[in-house]
Amino acid sequence: MNSIDRTPVLGAGLLLALGCMPLPVAAQSDPSRETATTGWATQNGGTRGGAHATASAVFTVKNARELKNAMTTRVGQGGRIVRVTGLIDVSEGRAYKTSAEMELRAKIVIPPRTTLIGVGRRAELQEAYVVVNSNDVIIRNLRVGLEK
Q1: Per-residue pLDDT tens for 76-95?
Q2: How far apart are CA 15 and CA 120, in angstroms?
Q3: How far apart are CA 68 and CA 16, in angstroms?
Q4: First vs last Cα of the chain: how many Å apart?
Q5: How many helices (H) and strands (E) does the chain have?
Q6: Which one, 8, 54, 88, 130, has the greatest CB density within 10 A?
Q7: How far apart are CA 91 and CA 146, in angstroms?
Q8: Is 121 helix (H, G, I), strand (E, B) or coil?
Q9: DSSP state letters, 30-76
């Protein structure tokens, strides 16, 4: 009887099968942890936003209250990541009666070392204005406007 060594074929088949397996979640890219790689944001050490945020400093928000809480919660030196899901009407359906009221209710102040990122294609802040008076802020994949 003829003996054929099938070890190389088995090894090649195993490699092909492993190559078709999905990557573990940790190996896939997380856009909220990416740093800025183009333009002025790369100067003076670059812009990292909340790329080094701890798990307790990562917020997923779906309404105005959660968004404002995420921006004011104290976080460590790694910063914060705020993930916006869907449409958030910052006015909460109540019209602004005066400019002062609009400034009080519509203003979203982004603190330093923050990444504000929309999740999916429909992430939006409506009836809001965003104020960035600090360094190391990244805003991505998010529509922001004062009109409905």
Answers
A1: 999 999 999 999 999 999 99
A2: 34
A3: 49
A4: 80
A5: 3, 7
A6: 88
A7: 10
A8: strand
A9: -GGGPPP-SGGGGSTT---TTTT--GGGEEEE-SHHHHHHHHHS---
Per-residue buried b or exposed e for 7-24, using 16+ beta carbons within 10 Å of the residue's own CB: eeeeeeeeeeeeeeeeee
- Determine the Cα–Cα distance for residues 49 and 115; give it in Å rounded to an integer: 5
Confidence of residue 37 (pLDDT cuts 50, 70, 90): confident
Looking at the predicted structure, is the pLDDT value of residue 40 above 90? Answer: no
* Residue whose pair of structure tokens reads 């910052």 in the numeric block: 90
Give the number of other Cβ atoms within 10 Å of residue 78's Cβ. Answer: 16
Report the distance separating Cα 58 and Cα 15, nearest Å: 37
**Radius of gyration from C-alpha coordinates of the chain:** 23
Joined tokens for residue 4:
């054929």
